[in-house]
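Human:
Care to share another protein and its fold?

Assistant:
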Amino acid sequence: MTRDPDDERPFGILGAGRYKRAPLAPDAAVLRRDLSYIHTDAIAASVMVGMGETYIAAFALALGFGDIIAGVVASGPLLAGAILQLVSPYAIRRLGSHRRWVVLNAALQAASFVPLVVAALTGHLTTFVLLAIVTFYWATGMAAGPAWNTWVGTIVPRSLRARFFARRSRVGQVALLAGLLGGGVILHYAESLGEKLLGFALLFALAGVARGISAWLLAHQSEPDPLVLRVTGGLDLAPPAATPGNRRLLAYLLAVQTGVHIAAPYFTPYMLGESALGLSYVGYMTLIAASFVSKIAALPWLGHFSAKYGARRLLRL
């Protein structure tokens, strides 16, 4: 993988940071190993999401926190995590490596499941501690994401990126669905045995192990470029945002996200709460899986529609 060293266009953006790079062509054996690890990491991380993240709000309900707290658990920590990830550019500059930062956050995210397992085994957890744990989970995950995107772009050759990441995405989706279905089955049988919380303990333990494997895979990938960080101010981002078309797009995205997230945090409480539909874990799992499978089936068609008629018509549709 080569690039003109005089080309300083940013490959990745992390917060207010831009990166310029001139990567060296990696050894073929190292590249094959890295691609294999990146691919397997998608499986491990997706299993974590399917078995762990998906069922956190359901766990809050199982502990008896009620619908409101379960909704807050699914929304408040996301906001806090998004704010906390702003430290990433400074941390990366201090560590001098994207890989170190990503591995550190992946390991910490895996560790965030330990107190959830303990809480499931003891059946006791305060609201504040639950929110703190979930906030830590989201903060570490969000902090690792942009850094990983920039780092992995220096590993995967440009000629392979489209096919490689498309295949990686499909495998990750299958692994997430498998984790989701497996989690629902575990909870169903645990509930039938009268050990509902024990089922959550097993789920979170498996999710933590999956993320631990993911961290190991990340740690054993190469970092071909130190990725010099060049911090830029907010004025550098102002011209694109000031363009009329971009303003309309940003307003559209903001309206969609606002509309979705008014109700989204309370989807799980409405489905599982005794005061609402009171579905079983199997019914809840089936609903989530159905929507997920529908998305997988629809995305290729939507991509074809966008390529043929344009993104504007797709957004209107």
Summary: The first strand starts at residue 13 and ends at 14. The two ends are 39 Å apart (CA to CA). Residues 1-26, 230-237 have pLDDT under 50 and may be disordered.
